[in-house]
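Hi Y.,

Following your request, here is the sequence exactly as I used it, all 376 residues.
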Amino acid sequence: MSIIREKEKDMKIVNNEKGKVKADHYTPSSPSKMNDSIILKKRHCITNLKTLTPHITCLAVHRNLLYAASLNLINVFELTHYSHIDSFNQSPSSGFVKSITFTNSKVFTAHQDRKIRVWLITPSKRHRLLSSLPTVTDRLRRCIVPRNYVTVRRHKTRLWIKHSDTVSGLAVNERFMYSVSWDRSFKVWDLLSYRCLESVKAHEDAINAVAVNGDGTVYTASADGSIKVWRRDGEAKRHKLVSNIGRQKSTVNALALEGGGAGLFSGGCDGEICRWECGKNGIVEMETLRGHGGAILCLIHVAGLLASASADLTVRIWQRERGSTNGYFCRAVLEGHEKPVKSLVAFSDAEGERDSNAIVTLFSGSLDGEIRVWEL
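Below is the corresponding structure, written out as tokens. Let me know if you'd prefer a different format.
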């Protein structure tokens, strides 16, 4: 029953604005009149991968391995020859896997059952469960002190180190990991001790996405239509709100940082992508990218390219025109999925963020259970 409820909640996001968005589709000029830099010459699908179960919820890449979460199961593929080498988290009781992140030989996974699990990558590229967060030790040392309990709903309390709803996203920066949840909070974890250091009541509704840049600035996006910016106070060792990026027109589902953290992209149920930059008066909106005909479900930025996945069954590739300081333009529309595209991940052979000769390999995962591999 829990998996059915999760499907329903996911599809509310997918279908919330479906059919209501009037998209301004990008229409290219005649090729003879266009700068060659405007056209992505390679955008073909190399291959497609199938998992044993449908509903791809998230993708991740680490150490030449592709991780694909399908329902509760996490499938691992070797990228050299796209062969399936491992599956882990066979327990259906964990519910959907919502996010995957890494530190060296450790894998961290976020789950519908409100837990974060820690896995070890063995030398044989198998995965062994090490712990779940919060750890038993952390729970025991805090459970005897009444002030460590917070009210999560009427007549119900919980230790503040525990999430009380689905853990929807994870992000890692140096020695800290940040988790966000549909319980409207984000938590900060020490990656050495696995202890929960802090819990912040961040939004008025479910938090759908989190991103952290190199200087430790944390961005959270919520179903309440807001994006908030947080920084850690070194003396108090607590995160404080430094900016609230207004109220968007709809639920915010996805975030992506531009190379180096200079800019931020957000996407929501209205099918629009907003690009934000930090100005003299705080974070300001620089432009709005239109073209999708359904909710934005995922965003990633790699090698100067922005990729967006949508409930309209497509992936769009956006890029600045070479030598221009103008905004982003749609360079390609990737089609072929039969259901909403829920997740993206990519890697590049580029030495720099804006290497124009880079070859980017992009993976798109859909609710149809298919993973498509694209070369850009």
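Confidence is low (pLDDT under 50) at residues 1-5, 15-39.

Thanks again,
Q.
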